[in-house]
Amino acid sequence: MHKSKLLIALIVGISFSLPVSAKMYKWVDDQGVTHYGETIPPEYANKDRTELNKTGRTVKKNEVLTSEERRMKEEAEAKKRNEAEAALESKRRDKALVNTYSSPAEIDLARSRNLQQIEARVSGVGAQVKIVNDSLLGLQKEADGYKQAGKKLPKSLQEDLDETQGRLTKLQQDLDKAKAEKSAMEARYDADKARYKELTGK
Q: Residue 105 is part of which domain span?
């Protein structure tokens, strides 16, 4: 208790002896000892410090973050920014949704119109897949005939097999992509319709 009173008296004494424009700082050294003064030693410039006024009250506290604390702070700020941007984008989409359609039926019409294009692509690519797959089966049957006869597979036949297999793989990837786009579009229109009803009560 006596030590605490002495410390307060010391702060007040130093404060009143300072010029009006002078600042006083408080910092803790590596041994945990608290120091007071008009200037901070260079070795403590990048560490936590407190600026005090003439009465010894805290005016400003400067906490130096560790690299991990700084990283966590930056991540928290980035998350906050992303959440704010997402909220703004959601509000923009809601406004566009209400302004674009006048009823849930209009959303169904737009859904059907846009799905027709993707469905046509799915159907077209699917037909090509069947044709190329049948061609590959024919080539494989021909290759099996050579193997059963113990004959070497002609180079041209092997090239045809490789080329046809490559085409089939590419077409299958295109078909899968088109189907995924169709599913995504269906889900998007379903979500838009549900949100439109929620916003308008229609």
A: 98-200
In this structure, of 18-32, 100-114, 118-132, the range with the lowest mean pLDDT score is: 18-32
Instruction: Please name which of 104, 92, 68, 71 lies closest in space to residue 198, comparing C-alpha atoms.
Output: 104
CA dist 80 → 2, 64, 71, 72, 130 (Å): 48, 22, 14, 12, 51
Contact 178, 128 (CB under 8 A): no
Q: Has this prediction a pTM greater than 0.90? A: no
- The Cα 115–Cα 109 span in angstroms is 10
Mean pLDDT of all residues in 77-84: 92
Contact predicate 29/44, CB 8 Å: yes
- Same domain for 102 and 194, yes or no, is yes
Q: How far apart are CA 17 and CA 142, in angstroms?
A: 105
What is the per-residue pLDDT for 28? 77
Instruction: Please tell me the total count of domains within the chain.
Output: 2
